[in-house]
Predict the structure of inositol-polyphosphate 5-phosphatase.
Amino acid sequence: METFTDVLLVTANVGSLFDNVSRLLRTIHSYKPQFIALHFQEVGGKDYMVNMGHADNFFRSIESNEEMKDYDRVCIYVDNQFQAEDVFTALGSMYFIHKTLKNIYQYDFNVKDFKAVSGQNKYVGSLAGVTTVEKEKFPKNFWPDFKWSRKGFMRTRWIIHNQGLDLVNVHLFHDASNLTACESSPSIYSANRKNALRYVINRISDSRYTPLPFFLFGDFNFRLDTLSLVQHLSTSADVQTVKKDSSNEVEKIICEEKDNDHQVLLQIEEKLFAYLHQAYFREDNVPSLLKYDKEVAVFHDVIREEDIKFPPSYPYSEEYTKPTQYMNTRCPAWCDRILMSHTAQEFIHRRDDDERGVVYDTLGPNVCMGDHKPVFLFFSLKTNGH
C-alpha cells in the first residue's frame, strides 16, 4: 500500500539574522508537514564567539513555540564548539516528527542499525560521540590557497514508512573576491565547490554504510558564471580595468554606457558588484538568469533539483526596510538549494493540478531574513509503507 507523508525541508544560512522565526513558523502552519527538517549554516553568525549564546535562544524559540506542540519527537544537532577549531562547522540540524506519523527510525552509525525515534533528543556541542549524526569538516589540505573556514557537512539517516533516506546539511566555500571570480569560466571558486561537493557525494555513497537515496540541502554558495554574465551585461558598454599603482593587479572593473553621459553600468571590486539595473535579478527575469547558473548541472549524473522559479537567494540587504533589495557586495546568486539523488526524486509524489503539489521557494520573500533568504521544499513523500 502506498503511503504519503508531507515533508518540509528548509535550509537557512543564519549568519546575519537570528530573529525571524515567525516566518518559518508561519510556513509550518500553512503547510502542516508531518516531518520537518531544518538545516542551518553559520550558527552563531560571523562573530560566533560573541553570538553563540544568542544562537541557543534561536533554537529554543523554535522548539518551544506553540506551533510545534504536536511534534512529539524532536532531534536537534548543533555544532557550536568554536573552540575546537579543527572540527567546528557551525552547522545546526533540527528534525520534528508529528504525532500522527508512526514508525520513524533513525540510524546509529556506531552499531550500524536503526532505532525507533522517541522523545526529545538534543545534542549541542562538538557532537563528538553522538552516534546518530555524522559530521565532517572539509580537510585542510583540500584548498591550500584559501583561508580555512567552518565549512563541512553533517548527515543523519532515517526510515520513514519503510523507506531509508539520508538528510545531509552542507556548507561549501564562498567567492572570496569578485575580481578573481571574473577571471575564468568556471571560476577557481566554482572549481573548489565542485571538488567539495563531489567529496560529499562520494562520502555519503561509499561502502561503509549501505548507500541510500539522499536529500542534500544547505548553503552551497553556488554563484552565477560571473565572467559570462559580466560579458553579457557589458555587451554595449566601454569596459575599463583599473590596476593598482605598483603592481599589475586589477583593483576595479568599470563598465560605462557608450552614450548617456558615460553612466556607470557596472562596477566590480573585490567586495563590490554594483549593477545599475537591479531589477535584472528579480522574479520575472529568473529564466534568463538561470542560464548562468551552471554549478549543479555538472552533477546531473547523480543530482536532481526541482525547477527554480524564485529570484536568487543571496545577498539580500540586512536593512529591515529593504527586504527585496540586494546588497551590492556580490552578484546575486542561488546559493541556498535543496538537491537530491535521482532515487530520492522518485519518491516525490506528483499530484493532480487541483491538489497542493510540490513547492520549491524562498521563505519570507517580502520580509528581511538577513543576507540569505531561506529556501524550502514542500512535498509528499510516497513510500510503500504499511
